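User: Hi! I'm a student and our assignment asks us to look at how structure tokens line up with a sequence. Could you show me two examples?

Assistant: Happy to help. In each example below, the sequence comes first and the structure tokens follow. Example one:
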Amino acid sequence: MEPVEIARKAVEVASEKQATDILLLDLHGMCSFADYFVICSAETERQVRTICDEIDNALDAAGVRGRREGQTASGWVLLDYWDVIVHVFNPKQREYYQLEELWIAGKTVLRIQ
């Protein structure tokens, strides 16, 4: 799968699992470690875990392997698919880290609120 397809699949699965405020950013030329960020929120630890598990399962079924960093209890789990980084936050951690502001120069490809 191409990176944009991986990112869109992650957005699709996150949306299906009721993630909120889903943002897909294109970081081409701005970032040396990824082409796309997917950023979304989940209200509970269980929902964070479910969203991450389902994204992992969907991409694994498509032959895409990644790594997981962070614990659901921390309020921020990162899924690393090399050119695509998926950030699943609880609302408090998302507000604290404000990745959207840090990467404000990135091109918004898609936003689902």
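Example two works the same way, sequence first and then tokens:
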Amino acid sequence: NLINGILEFRKTETRNRKLEVCRGNLVNFVREIGLRFKELNSNKDVNIVIAINMPEEQDMYYDPEMINIILNNLLGNAMKYTKKGVITLSVSEHERNCLRYIDITVSDTGEGISPEILPHIFKRYYQANHNKKVAGTGIGLALTQHLVELHEGLISVSSEQGKGSSFTVSLLIDNNYPNAIHKDISGDNETADVTVRPDINIQSERLTILIVEDDEDVKDYIASSFADTYNVICASNGKEGLDSVKAN
């Protein structure tokens, strides 16, 4: 999840992350994510509560991958900073200026955030020194804010040190996202066309793969992940990659 988060953050930084929405029941989707955290929670001193305070049959357009990453980050942080108490994932609806919004809130009774740190928590690579026992990359909340904004939503936070924090993501229920990529959930099982090059012996002991990535650290990580199984060729851009293909 950490590596996926870094890659996702990279895509948002380079403006390569596009909104891909489908129409479905967002309330059920949020509940499923909450149940996953509830089942995997190994801290007996922390109780995870899921509270649905709106009609459950509310269909709307949303990007499942974005919502999943947003809630993974918010719930993950809540579990990280709550050693004892309650973490609540709630879903509610409110109306403002005749527009309906869905509010997804993650609140906890954990350590809370000090007033000095609160204005900086959405800054990329920002890491507070108040708790050196908890490690992080400094990109989780920055990525979360990026994804919420790409989803044309708002994220807000309230916190009191020693009493806990509350993060709320607000999305417009009737937003059709005309500029987004629209996906049909029923089309997930479609089989893509695959072209097999006859000059490659897939039974050979080691195949060769090409990795094209302009971030050196990410490129090195991906290369090391495949090095035990494949011959790996790396390139920093498309031209270098094409030249490598022709040369090999």
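Here is something you could point out in your write-up. The beta strands are 20-25, 46-53, 59-62, 85-96, 99-108, 154-160, 164-172, 181-182, 208-212, 231-235.
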